[in-house]
Design a protein that fits this description.
Mean pLDDT is 84; it is low at 1-57 and 239-251. This protein has helices spanning 16-22, 44-56, 63-77, 149-163, 261-269, 278-284, 287-299, 304-313, 515-527, 531-543, 558-577, 581-594, 599-612, 617-636, 660-663, 666-671, and strands at 10-15, 85-94, 113-121, 126-132, 138-141, 170-180, 199-208, 217-223, 229-231, 323-326, 335-341, 353-358, 362-365, 394-399, 408-416, 421-431, 434-437, 452-455, 458-459, 473-477, 491-497, 502-509. Among the domains are: 10-142, no CATH class; 150-231, no CATH class; 529-671, no CATH class. It has 16 helices and 22 strands. A hairpin with a 3-residue loop joins strand 12 (353-358) and strand 13. The chain has a five-stranded antiparallel β-sheet, sandwiched between helices. Strands 14, 15, 16, 17 and 18 form a five-stranded antiparallel β-sheet that branches. The protein is an alpha+beta fold.
Length: 673
C-alpha cells in the first residue's frame, strides 16, 4: 500500500506573478511582492518569467486556495498574513492522501490527489506547503529536499545523463531555493558575461546513495522547472567520506551497529521507496549480520539478559519487552523472540521493524529484507497487514488455540492516523518443523489473508465461544474515529481453529440503534447462508419504528425508505429461493403499494414476472441486477441521489456501500441452487 505520494503527472513550475496575472479578479495583495523587487512595478526579468509560465502551465490555483494557504502558513509560523506571499507554485498529482508527507507510521489512503506545492515567503525566508485541490489538506513540508517532485524527477533524469550514472542510483538529499544570474551561477565558457537578472531556481545536492559505500555527491544549479540543469564541478562535496555501515563485516562476537536515526531518516527521504535497494538498506541497517550475531550468541549459550542489554544499547530494541524467552518448538530450549526496531522516526504508538524467532538458527521472520521500508505501487499495492509502516510485531498473548498443548503466539501491529488506530493480528504456531501463520481469510487490500486487520480493536479474554473445548481468538471493535466514516456499530469477531486454520466463525454486533445497521447484519446473515435469521432481520428493518434514521447529512426519510425497499426486495428473493411463489408475490405487492415509483420496485416486478413465467431464478435475478446497474450508471452523472439505493451508496467509509449491483446478489443466488 502507498504511504507517501509521488507525483503521477508532471507540470510546469509557474511564478506567483503568473498567478497574479491569470487569476480573474484576484486581489493584488494575495500575491503581491511574490517575485521580487522592492518596487511594485514588475521588472523585465520578472515579466519574462511570468509570460513563460503562462505559456506553459496547464492550470492555476484559485484565489481562495491561495488565501487558505497563506492563512494556514500565518498560523503555523506566527507571522501576519499580510507579510506572507506565494513565491511560486507547481501543479502536482499525489498518490496518497498525505500528499507525500506521511510519516513512517502514518496511515495514508491510497488515492490520487490533484494538488499543488507552494513556496510561501515573508521576504526573508521561505517555507514549502503541499495542498490538495479542494484545500482540505494543507501540509507544511519539513524535508531537507524541498524541490517539487516533478522538478526533482526532471533534475535526476538530466543529472543521470550528465554523470552517466543510472537514474535508479541517484537521489536528491537536499535542496534550497535560489535566485541565479543569467548563467545560473556557472558560466559555460571562460570569461562569459552573465546577465545580472534574477532567475528563480534551485541549488540541489544529488547523491549516489545505493551503489557504493562512498556515496559521492554533486551540486547542481537549475532554473525553476529544471529545464536547464548545470553541474557545479567546483562545489565542495557536502559528504566527502560517508560511512553508511560503520561495521559492514562484524566479528561474530561483536554486535553489528546501524547508522543513526537522523542519518537513516535523511537517506530514506532521498530514496524512491517503491524501488528501495535491499543491499543499500543492509549497508545502513545490517539486519542479516545481526541475525548471524544472535544465532552465534544463542549457540554459545550467552546470557539472554546481556544480549538484551547489548541490543538495546545498539538501538536494535525500543523497549526491554521487545526481547522475550519462550520454548516455541517443544525442544526444551527457550528461543529468543525479538521485536527489532528499524524505525528512524518512531511515533508515540510504536516503532516500525521486524519480528524474529532465534534459536540455533532463524526459526521465523515476519519480513524479508527486501520488504524493509518498501512502499507499494498502484499496480502492486501492499496489503495493510504487510505494510512496513505499521509497528514491529509484538507478542501480546501466548495461547493454545489448537488444543494440542503447544503455545501459539498472538502478534499485534498497529498504525494510528489523525482519528483512528488500526490493529493487525497474526497467530503463529510451530507445526511440522516450521513456524507458520494459522489465520486464513480471503486476501484484500487490508490483509494478505494470514492476518486480521481491525480498527480501534482490542483482544478479549480467550474463551470457548464455539463449544469445541478450545479457546477462540476474540476481537472487539471495528469502528473508525473520523466523522467521514459515518455512524458505525462495534462488533465482536470470533476466530476459531477448524483443524486446518483459524477462520472467522461468527460476527456479533452490539445492539443496533440504527435501521441501516440491522440491514447490514441481515445482508451478512444471508451471505452466510442463515436465511431464517436474515429474514427476521429484514422484517425488523421494515417494521421496527424504534430504530433511528436521523442521519443529518441525508435528506429526511431517505435512509428509512431506501433501507425498507432493499429489505423488502431481499425478503421477496428469500421466498423465491425457498420456492414460495405466494409469499414472494406478497412482498412484490408490498413494494408496489408503498413505493410504486422506486427503481427497486420496478426491478422486483421484472424479476417476479420472469420467475413466474418459468425463468430460472438466476435469469430473473440477472435481469433485475442489470436493470438497476444500468439505471445507476445513467443517474451517476446527473443526479446520484436518484440512484436505486439512494443514500445507502455512501453511509461513510466505515460502513458497507450498497449499490444497485448489491440488491440482487447473482453469485449468492447461483450458489443456492
Amino acid at each position: 500500500m502507498l504511504r507517501r505520494g509521488f507525483p503521477a503527472t508532471r507540470h510546469f513550475l509557474a511564478s506567483s506573478l503568473a498567478l497574479s496575472l491569470t487569476l480573474l479578479g484576484a486581489s493584488a495583495s494575495a500575491v503581491s511582492g511574490a517575485i521580487a523587487p522592492a518596487s511594485d512595478t514588475p521588472t523585465l526579468s520578472s515579466l519574462s518569467i511570468a509570460q513563460n509560465s503562462i505559456a506553459q502551465s496547464r492550470r492555476f490555483p484559485s484565489e481562495n486556495l491561495v488565501t487558505q494557504v497563506r492563512q494556514v502558513a500565518s498560523r503555523d509560523l506566527n507571522i501576519p498574513i499580510d507579510n506572507l506571499h506565494i513565491m511560486r507554485y507547481s501543479d502536482e498529482t499525489w498518490t496518497d492522501s498525505c500528499l507525500g508527507l506521511g510519516g513512517p507510521a502514518e496511515l495514508c489512503a491510497q488515492v490520487m490527489v490533484e494538488g499543488w506545492q507552494m513556496e510561501v515567503s515573508d521576504g526573508e525566508q521561505s517555507w514549502f506547503y503541499r495542498i490538495s485541490d479542494s484545500g482540505d489538506t494543507i501540509r507544511r513540508s519539513e524535508r531537507s529536499d524541498v524541490l517539487p517532485p516533478s522538478v526533482r524527477d526532471r533534475l535526476l533524469t538530466k543529472a543521470a545523463q550528465q554523470l552517466n550514472i543510472p537514474i535508479s542510483e541517484l537521489g536528491v538529499i537536499s535542496s534550497e531555493p535560489h535566485m541565479w544570474d543569467g548563467c545560473l551561477g556557472i558560466p559555460t565558457a571562460p570569461n562569459q558575461p552573465c546577465t545580472e537578472i534574477g532567475i528563480l531556481g534551485w541549488r540541489a545536492v544529488v547523491q549516489r546513495g545505493e551503489a557504493t559505500r562512498s556515496a559521492p555527491t554533486w551540486v547542481f544549479h537549475l532554473d525553476q522547472d529544471a529545464s536547464e540543469v548545470r553541474l557545479n564541478a567546483s562545489a565542495p562535496n557536502p559528504n566527502p567520506n560517508p560511512s553508511p555501515n560503520p561495521n559492514p563485516n562484524p566479528n561474530p562476537n561483536t554486535i553489528p551497529s546501524r547508522i543513526s536515526n537522523a542519518e537513516l531518516q535523511t537517506w530514506l527521504e532521498s530514496q524512491d521507496l517503491r524501488l528501495i535497494n535491499p543491499a543499500a538498506v543492509q549497508q545502513r541497517v545490517p539486519t542479516e549480520a545481526l541475525i548471524t550475531w544472535l544465532e552465534t550468541q544463542w549457540q554459545q549459550g550467552a546470557n539472554p539478559n546481556q544480549v538484551r542489554t547489548a541490543l538495546q544499547s545498539a538501538n536494535w530494541l525500543a523497549n526491554t519487552e521487545d526481547f522475550r524467552l519462550l520454548d516455541v518448538n517443544g525442544d526444551g530450549e527457550e528461543e529468543w523472540l525479538v521485536s527489532v526496531n528499524l524505525d528512524p522516526n518512531p511515533m508515540h504508538w510504536g516503532n516500525s521493524g521486524d519480528f524474529w524467532i532465534i534459536g540455533d538458527s532463524l526459526l521465523y521472520r515476519f519480513f524479508e529484507p527486501e520488504d524493509y521500508y518498501r512502499e507499494g505501487t498502484e499496480a502492486n499495492p501492499i496489503p495493510l497487514s504487510q505494510d512496513f509502516v505499521l509497528t514491529a510485531p509484538q507478542v501480546i498473548a501466548v495461547q493454545d488455540y489448537t488444543g494440542d498443548r503447544s503455545p501459539e503466539l498472538l502478534l499485534q501491529r498497529q498504525i494510528c492516523g489523525a482519528h483512528t488506530c488500526t490493529q493487525s493480528y497474526t497467530v503463529l504456531s510451530y507445526r511440522n518443523g516450521t513456524m507458520r501463520s494459522l489465520l486464513s481469510q480471503t486476501p484484500s487490500l487490508d490483509t494478505d489473508g494470514q492476518s486480521v486487520v481491525m480498527p480501534y480493536s482490542e483482544v478479549k479474554t480467550a474463551e470457548d465461544e464455539t463449544g469445541d473445548e478450545r479457546p477462540d481468538l476474540i476481537l472487539y471493535g471495528g469502528t473508525y474515529g473520523s466523522a467521514g466514516a459515518g455512524v458505525q456499530r462495534p462488533r465482536t469477531e470470533i476466530w476459531s481453529w477448524d483443524g486446518r486454520a483459524m477462520t472467522l466463525e461468527d460476527i456479533r454486533w452490539d445492539p443496533a440503534e440504527y435501521r441501516v445497521h440491522v440491514l447490514y447484519e441481515a445482508n451478512y446473515r444471508m451471505a452466510q447462508g442463515d436465511r431464517d435469521r436474515a429474514a427476521d432481520l429484514y422484517e425488523q428493518v421494515i417494521e421496527d419504528d424504534s430504530l433511528d434514521d436521523d442521519l443529518w447529512w441525508n435528506p429526511a426519510g431517505s435512509v428509512y425508505d431506501s433501507s425498507r425497499q432493499f429489505a423488502a426486495f431481499r425478503l421477496m428473493l428469500l421466498e423465491m429461493m425457498e420456492g414460495d411463489r405466494d409469499d414472494a408475490e406478497d412482498w412484490q405487492r408490498w413494494l408496489r403499494r408503498r413505493y410504486p415509483n422506486a427503481p427497486i420496485t420496478e426491478a422486483a416486478r421484472q424479476m417476479s414476472e420472469l420467475w413466474s413465467n418459468q425463468a430460472s431464478l438466476t435469469t430473473a435475478c440477472t435481469a433485475a441486477h442489470n436493470y438497476l446497474v444500468d439505471l445507476e450508471q445513467d443517474q451517476n452523472g446527473r443526479n446520484p441521489a436518484n440512484t436505486p439505493t439512494g443514500p445507502l451508496r455512501d453511509m461513510g467509509y466505515g460502513n458497507p456501500s450498497l449499490t444497485g449491483a448489491d440488491v440482487c446478489p447473482i453469485e449468492l443466488v447461483q450458489a443456492s441452487r
